[in-house]
Amino acid sequence: MRRRIGTRQRAALLTALLATVAALGLFRAGAAATDSAPPPTLRETGLYANFAALTIDPHNLPYAPQYPLWSDGATKRRWIHLPPGKTIDASDPDVWLFPAGTKLWKEFSFHGRPVETRLLESLGEGVWRFASYVWNADQTDAVLAPAAGIRNIVEIEPGIRHNIPAVFDCKACHSSRKDEALGFSALQLSPDRDPRAPHAEAPPAGAVNLNTLIEHHLLRGFPAALARRPLRINAPTPTDRAALGYLHANCGNCHNPGGAAEVLNLQLRHLVAPGATGEPALATGVNKSGEFAIPGAPPGETRFIRPGDPAHSSVLYRMATRNPLEQMPALGTKIADAEAVQLIRRWIQEDLPTEQSAGAAKP
């Protein structure tokens, strides 16, 4: 039997909700700037040099994050346009600030054809405009989706259909203290790519990465100490590295300092800033209790991450379920990521107990 929600849990949920509302920018000065209408069609956004031939403008550079976000098995292509003469403020290497006019596109394809292309356009000062464009069946046009999104637009598995997200949903994932361009960051663009990252993508021809940004002086204020060595998650085992990277990309957008889920005290974003020590996911997740209890688990047995005990690890449980009241991520996915669930289960079962025992044996 599931335990009843107590006063403490209701307070935590309310606080989390208020944090989410604040993160969505509803109370942020200047948020009204995002109300300006995006172009009505994808061809007008500047992505293509020749829309009829679907030729990408060469000024828009492709990229591929080393830890892709799970989107129900969608195949994706991504591009960035940085205004000429402008640079990215990378003085905080964990949260880059992009100049006004920066555009990022992400194309989602299912069953071999594009279904939607999302656009993020920087308005400056950490404020972004969000838009989704819906492709017609013969791929001759893609038009702006309503701000409320479109439900059940295409079947992706029997009985499961893809939703075009609402602008509100986009902001729920991309907003913390400032709106963020997820997937285009120092760790995600590191040339030291994780070969075991779930759903790893080979960078496309001409893809931009951290080295090319540095070499072309497109990063401003990026710490010199980080520029001298390839960025990676330093972990004891390959499984550790892949697991922490997956949590960073798929959970850390909310579970981070300043994120919508900050109040829950579970930090899953890997930090690369100089002086960052330890691993937040381990420090805040391993053997730590939250308000959520796994259904059927004995009282007090649930932990965020319980070494050697996947059955009582709520992070794994919520990744694996698609009960809309329990699943994580809460938005953007209707199908559990089976590859990642297997990875996190193996990490909890096999790697974490070994590392804890090794650590305990040290004087």
Could you explain the architecture of this structure?
The protein is of the alpha+beta class and 363 residues long. It has one domain (7-356). It has helices spanning 7-23, 167-174, 210-215, 224-227, 238-250, 280-285, 314-320, 338-361, and strands at 48-50, 55-56, 61-62, 75-81, 88-89, 103-110, 113-124, 127-135, 142-144, 150-157, 160-164, 219-220. The strands form 4 sheets. It has a 6-stranded antiparallel beta sheet with strand order 3-4-6-7-8-9, with helices on one face. Strands 1-2 form a two-stranded antiparallel sheet. It has a two-stranded parallel ribbon with strand order 5-12. Helix 5 packs across helix 8 (338-361).
List the defining traits of the structure above.
363 residues, disordered N terminus, alpha+beta, six-stranded antiparallel sheet, two-stranded antiparallel ribbon
Question: What's this entry about, in short?
Answer:
With 363 residues, the protein is an alpha+beta fold. It has helices at residues 7-23, 167-174, 210-215, 224-227, 238-250, 280-285, 314-320, 338-361, and strands at 48-50, 55-56, 61-62, 75-81, 88-89, 103-110, 113-124, 127-135, 142-144, 150-157, 160-164, 219-220.
Tell me roughly what share of residues is in helical segments.
Answer: 10-25%
Structure summary, number of beta strands: 12
Apparent shape: globular
Mean pLDDT: 87
Biggest beta sheet attributes = 6 strands, antiparallel
Q: How would you spell out the order of helices and strands? A: HEEEEEEEEEEEHHEHHHHH
Pairing-aware structural class of the strands and helices? alpha+beta
Main sheet: strand order:
3-4-6-7-8-9
Instruction: Compute the separation of the termini in Å.
Output: 44 Å
Q: Which runs of at least 5 residues are low in confidence (pLDDT < 50)? A: 1-34
Radius of gyration: 21 Å
Strand content: 15-25%
What is the number of helical segments per DSSP (H or I, 4+ residues)?
8
- Tally of structural domains: 1
